[in-house]
Design brief:
Blueprint (H helix, E strand, L loop, with lengths): L20 H4 L8 H15 L2 H9 L6 H24 L5 H22 L9 H10 L2 H23 L4 H74 L3 H27 L6 H15 L2 E3 L9 H21 L4 E6 L3 E6 L11 H12 L3 E6 L5 E6 L1 H4 L1
Parallel strand pairs: 1-2
Antiparallel strand pairs: 2-3, 3-5, 4-5
Helix pairs in contact: 2-4, 4-5, 5-6, 6-7, 6-8, 7-8, 8-9, 8-10, 8-11, 10-11, 11-12
Pfam family, one: HisKA_3
Keywords: Kinase, Membrane, Transferase, Transmembrane, Transmembrane helix, Two-component regulatory system
Protein name: Sensor histidine kinase
Length: 391
């Protein structure tokens, strides 16, 4: 039973914040990590033009050269540190991320403390942005709103009033950056999911071609081998060239059909019919000297199961020819079931190969089932049931 409460690892949620795994996945369809980091640094570097207004405001020298110089130095270190965090932060370890955010807050608060003005706490928007980028939401959001609360308290203590414009700027930037990073994570994971879907489609197509080629060539080559062996025995033991030529004509027809089937399989145009496979099984079993007890009509099976039942007959008869010492092979078909059984010796440990595994996948694709193993009367039996039979 699937637990619906279990989080989907391929779906981004707030609990996974921050999740930069799509940057580190080299197979991702998103921009490579280097390009993404350069883009982030450039965009945020342009946004740091807000600090230029403070530099202009402090250039009048009202705070004195020493304090002004210290503030300029800390603002410069703050800007450089913020850009370095943008570059190294997403790929850093958890402890390193915490240290980066703490260092940014320390550098951002220092100018306000030197100048004794809570207005300059608005510059902490960049430190809050780094927190949203690197820390879980349960830490980064309280950090942002706690900074706004601290600015309000300082303003009330110092001036007895609150400059709401500056506070709202801090709160609004915190909220906007949270939305921006949420979109960044979501878009990144959508791109990664799209790339995974593309790879899965390619893998499924490869599996389809491999399975169809196995079904086509396995049966055709087994029949050709039997025909060649029969032709060699005829030529070695008798002078009946007419019979040998008849077998060679069958071989020629089988080769052409196999080549046509391979081409159609690769092009995904190949269709399998139960009637055709039963006719082919009759010819192959006859060439192997196995008595074939096959249905005269195959219309009993429903139309939507004709194709998959054709694959079952092809693979099951191929296994009789290649792996069994059976003298008799029986095929029975009903509306939503098909049975192929023989009277050969069944080993104690039957390991299903690619053919039976492929048949099980084909039956599952039509909501059916496949059973195989020792039959009730001995020998090996393959039983395919459609949806109604499975129920």
């Amino acid at each position: 039973m699937i637990d619906v409460r279990e989080p989907d690892p391929d779906r981004f949620s707030a609990r996974q914040w921050p999740d930069w795994s799509f940057w580190t996945d080299a197979r991702s369809g998103a921009a490579p990590p280097h390009r993404g980091r350069v883009r982030s640094v450039v965009v945020n570097g342009v946004m740091m033009a807000f600090l230029v207004t403070w530099v202009i405001a402090l250039a009048d020298g009202r705070y004195g050269p020493v304090r002004t110089g210290l503030v300029f130095g800390f603002l410069g270190c703050y800007a450089v540190a913020y850009l370095l965090v943008l570059w190294f932060g997403p790929l850093a370890l958890r402890r390193q991320r915490i240290a980066m955010v703490a260092a940014l807050f320390a550098l951002g608060i220092t100018p306000a403390l030197i100048l004794g003005s809570p207005a300059y706490l608005t510059s902490l928007t960049y430190a809050i942005a780094a927190g949203l980028m690197l820390l879980p939401l349960r830490f980064s959001l309280p950090l942002g709103f706690g900074t706004a609360a601290a600015q309000i308290a300082w303003m009330l203590v110092r001036d007895g009033r609150v400059a709401w414009g500056q506070v709202l700027t801090l709160v609004a930037v915190t909220a906007i950056l949270g939305v921006v990073y949420a979109l960044t994570f979501t878009i990144g994971h959508l791109r990664l999911a799209r790339e995974q879907i593309r790879r899965m489609a390619v893998d499924q197509e490869r599996q389809r071609v491999a399975r169809d080629l196995h079904d086509v060539l396995g049966h055709s080559l087994s029949t050709m081998t039997l025909k060649l062996g029969l032709t060699r025995r005829i030529l070695e033991t008798t002078d009946n060239t007419a019979a040998a030529l008849a077998e060679i004509r069958d071989l020629d027809e089988l080769c052409r059909e196999a080549l046509s089937d391979v081409r159609a399989t690769v092009s995904d145009y190949r269709t399998v019919s139960l009637a055709t496979e039963v006719a082919g099984a009759r010819m192959a079993l006859r060439a192997a000297g196995v008595h074939a007890d096959l249905p005269a009509e195959t219309d009993a099976a429903t139309a939507d199961l004709q194709g998959v039942f054709g694959y079952v007959v092809r693979e099951a008869v191929t296994n009789v020819l290649r792996h069994s010492d059976a003298q008799r092979c029986t095929v029975r078909v009903g509306r939503d079931w098909l049975e192929v059984a023989d009277d050969g010796t069944v080993p104690a440990d039957v390991v299903p190969g690619h053919g039976l595994t492929g048949l099980a996948e084909r039956m599952a694709a039509v909501s059916g089932t496949l059973e195989h193993g020792r039959g009730p009367h001995g020998g090996f039996r393959v039983l395919a049931r459609g949806p109604a039979g499975a129920a």
